[in-house]
Design a protein that fits this description.
Layout lengths: L1 E10 L2 E7 L4 E5 L6 H13 L8 H4 L6 E9 L5 E9 L4 E6 L2 E2 L12 E4 L5 H4 L2 H15 L1 H26 L5 H41 L5 E6 L9 H14 L1 H7 L10 E6 L2 E2 H4 L2 H23 L4 E5 L7 H11 L5 E5 L8 E2 L6 E6 L2 E7 L2 E2 L1
Parallel strand pairs: 3-13, 3-15, 8-12, 12-13, 14-17
Antiparallel strand pairs: 1-2, 1-4, 4-5, 5-6, 6-7, 9-10, 10-11, 15-16
């Protein structure tokens, strides 16, 4: 799919900005703070109904304004036109999402329909950060490609919250409701086992893709591994067997959970490990290896989602070229130039001097003070 056009009204520092997009590469150029990232943030909001920074709608509303609006036209791979509009009013805190003038009842219904791949400097935490950052990464990838998984995640978080509330009551108020916690235990086990099984399947498929992407981008023979370590020490792939092990772990940790007041077993405690040549990337990879691994993960995400969703995702790359050396930046442009539609922000126009020949004419949008200052067609090199 591709984004034909997008209009921002009172979004971040954009009062009224219209972008008529190239089907290929779209470069957003300008100094820091001018509004480049705000445009790709708006694209993510259009496709996911929320900012990729995870902030509230009130935060992205332009200072001093009462409401914002984003309108975009997306053309699917099957050449179906979709007009999406998102309106938010500060006074009522109400957000309306419409697709072809039809109100979307639940924002989660849009997840995966218009897939996007997002890479920002903040996502360095995927390889550098805590287990929660890596879980968030794989959950987002799988959720865009599986409605059932997304619903399981939503249900699991609700169940976990209720179960933790009972444990907290036991800890603080000494209120023990064994019958109620048993009910939540079974719900946690059933939904949690489905999540764990899906994560096991995902890692198996994803491993081959990431190896291929990393070799292409780095030009090296480094061995990349993606390992999944469930908190329940799962050694089986059958969902019934996963439930049995999960249930045993809950029983074994019952006394500890009552003492600390929260759930310590389940997919919310799982770890995903990335290894380079047998060593944990988090602890041993160089800065360059971290950057290359992260970009490789995002390219692998693109191919995985494209296959599962049967729709070409839009790539949103924020300030990525400055994170890579010249050679790896060039390889990234070459690798992505014919994947589909890409939006790349950069402060350094020299980083895109050598743009690969593409079937769609790349565009340069010069962003200044929350508006498009000028537009140029980019010159491709042979």
């Amino acid at each position: 799919m591709y984004l034909k056009s997008i209009q921002l009204e009172n979004y971040r520092n954009h009062s009224s900005t219209i972008v008529e997009c190239s089907r290929g590469i779209n470069f957003l150029l300008g100094n820091n703070g001018e509004g480049k990232t705000n445009i790709i943030e708006a694209i993510s909001t259009l496709c996911l109904t929320k900012s990729f920074f995870g902030v509230s709608d009130s935060i992205v509303l332009k200072t001093g304004e009462k409401k914002f609006r984003i309108v975009g036209k997306i053309i699917s791979d099957c050449e179906i036109d979709y007009m999406i509009s998102i309106d938010f009013e500060q006074e009522t805190r109400r957000k309306n999402v419409l697709v072809n003038k039809t109100l979307v009842e639940k924002a989660s219904l849009l997840i995966g329909q218009f897939p996007v791949i997002i890479l920002t400097p903040e996502q360095n935490a995927i390889t550098f950060g805590a287990p929660t950052d890596r879980r968030r990464f794989i959950d987002f990838v799988i959720a865009q490609s599986s409605r059932a998984y997304l619903e399981n995640l939503i249900d699991y978080r609700r169940i976990l919250k209720q179960r933790n509330k009972i444990l907290t009551n036991k800890l603080i108020r000494n209120i023990e409701n064994l019958e109620e916690i048993e009910i939540w235990n079974e719900s946690l086990i059933n939904i949690g086992a489905s999540i764990i099984k899906k994560r096991i399947e995902f890692i198996k498929e994803f491993q081959d893709i990431i190896v291929c992407m990393h070799k292409m981008l780095s030009g090296s023979d480094e061995i990349i591994e993606v390992l999944y370590e469930p908190s329940c020490k799962i050694y089986a792939e059958s969902e019934d067997e996963i439930k049995r092990i999960f249930r045993e772990e809950i029983v074994n940790n019952k006394k500890i959970e009552y003492k600390i007041g929260h759930t310590i077993v389940g997919p919310h405690r799982d770890e995903i490990i990335f290894k380079i040549n047998g060593l944990h990337a988090k602890n041993y990879a160089s800065q360059g290896q971290h950057k290359t691994l992260l970009v490789s993960l995002k390219l692998a995400e693109f191919y995985y989602i494209k296959e599962k969703c049967k729709e070409t995702p839009i790539l949103l790359l924020d300030d990525v070229l400055s994170e890579l050396d010249l050679k790896r930046g060039q390889r990234l442009l070459e690798a992505t130039s014919e994947l589909g539609q890409i939006f790349i922000t950069t402060t350094d126009e020299r980083a895109i001097d050598r743009i690969p020949v593409t079937s769609a004419t790349p565009k340069k949008f010069y962003v200044k003070k929350g508006s498009i200052d000028r537009i140029e067609n980019a010159i491709c090199s042979n």
